[in-house]
Design brief:
Elements: H1 6-27, E1 36-44, H2 47-56, E2 61-69, H3 71-77, E3 83-91, E4 94-103, E5 121-127, H4 130-139, E6 143-144, E7 150-151, E8 163-168, E9 174-179, E10 197-207, H5 210-220, E11 224-232, H6 234-240, E12 246-253, E13 259-267, E14 286-292, H7 295-304, E15 308-309, E16 315-316, E17 326-331, E18 337-342
Parallel strand pairs: 1-4, 5-9, 10-13, 14-18
Antiparallel strand pairs: 1-14, 2-3, 3-4, 5-10, 6-8, 7-8, 8-9, 11-12, 12-13, 15-17, 16-17, 17-18
């Protein structure tokens, strides 16, 4: 550059700077479509009974309690003639919602449902002391889904030392309590708080094929893979209550909120597919509620990806009783319901 005039040297330097800036921008990851996992919604048969269980046994706190009806909710949930009571509950920094359909009533969870059925979804609640938490659940006569608390073995590097136990609420929804060893889990799960039940780490869903699910949760929704593990052996079998269980586990997170855990049963592969006729008023129904910055951009991306819609496009919820102004609902490749809403003020 020494033979160039000062002006030409300045222009060339400016051009190089602009090219470098453009390349840098091109290399930055695109903004995620989904920014937060907000809550998991579960359909219940008796709201008063369910609230008593979640507040009294699992030590959640009630945030809101509303009764809804009308076309907006019908179009969002795909159920005609809806009247529903919706209760939002909080534990730690995380939330669930419970929905009782006063009309029309749906079907109960099949009594022979298993942990490797595609319709399986649980919420994982972190505890500070597994032995004390299990004793408390026994005292309150919860229904076991595991044989008892299991400690995952040391040979399994990514899961070693984790203690977990599956159980069910009164409607048969599977739940998990989980305690991380000091070298695993988010930092907040290791803070001393004096509480027994600390918050929700993730929701776990059974999937048929991990790569197909990653194309939905990672590539379309923009969640990030944060961990992988292949679990098998007697501890995993007795945790899931599935003989010969060998499970490929992939953990994903959005920027905020609990994670989503994909459970692919490599064995046995006899789990039942998601019920094709499942509706939101059936007790087996769960919705993972996520937030996006731009609802219109989000719906267009889901349409372009040929994702199955439950709702009739974007639904406006004018009175804001459910805590959003616009939302839509889709199903993932296995049939699990995902409700996408625009960001709002917390909680």
């Amino acid at each position: 550059m020494k033979n160039l005039t000062p002006l030409r040297r300045s222009l060339l330097s400016l051009g190089l700077l602009l090219a470098t800036s453009i390349l840098s921008l091109a290399q930055q990851p695109a903004a995620s479509l989904v920014t937060r996992v907000d809550a998991v919604n579960m359909t219940v048969s008796d709201m008063d009974r369910a609230v008593t269980f979640y507040l009294g046994v699992l030590q959640f706190h009630k945030v809101s309690d509303v009764e809804l009806s009308g076309e907006s909710y019908e179009h969002l949930e795909g159920v005609f003639g809806v009247r529903a009571r919706v209760v939002r509950l909080q534990i730690g920094d995380e939330f669930i919602t419970l929905t009782e359909y006063l009309a029309p009533k749906g079907r109960p969870i099949p009594v022979d449902a298993r942990s490797n059925d595609r319709s399986f979804q649980h919420v994982a609640i972190i505890v500070s002391d597994m032995d004390r938490a299990y004793a408390w659940l026994r005292q309150n006569k919860v229904e076991h889904a595991s044989a008892g608390p299991q400690r995952l073995p040391d040979w399994n590097k990514n899961a070693a030392g984790i203690r977990a136990f599956y159980f069910k609420d009164q409607d048969g929804h599977p739940l998990e309590i989980l305690q991380f060893p000091p070298d695993k889990g988010l930092a907040k799960w290791h803070r001393t708080s004096g509480e027994l039940f600390l918050g929700i780490d993730h929701t776990a869903i059974v999937v048929g094929n991990t790569e197909t699910s990653l194309s939905f949760y990672r590539d379309l929704m923009g969640m990030h893979v944060v961990g992988k593990s292949e679990n098998y052996g007697t501890e995993q079998e007795h945790l899931n209550n599935v003989f010969g269980a060998r499970v490929l586990i992939t953990s994903l997170r959005a920027e905020y909120g609990p994670g989503v855990e994909l459970l692919e049963y490599l064995a046995p592969r006899d789990g039942r597919p998601f019920p094709a006729d499942e509706r939101a008023n059936d007790i087996v129904h769960r919705e993972t509620i996520v937030e996006t910055h731009n609802i219109n951009a989000a719906v267009n991306k889901f349409i372009a990806a040929n994702i199955m819609f439950v709702s009739s496009g974007v639904v406006a919820e004018s009175d804001g009783q459910l805590g959003f102004q616009k939302a839509f609902q889709v199903r993932d490749p296995d049939g699990h319901a995902i409700l996408v809403k625009e960001n709002q003020e917390r909680p």
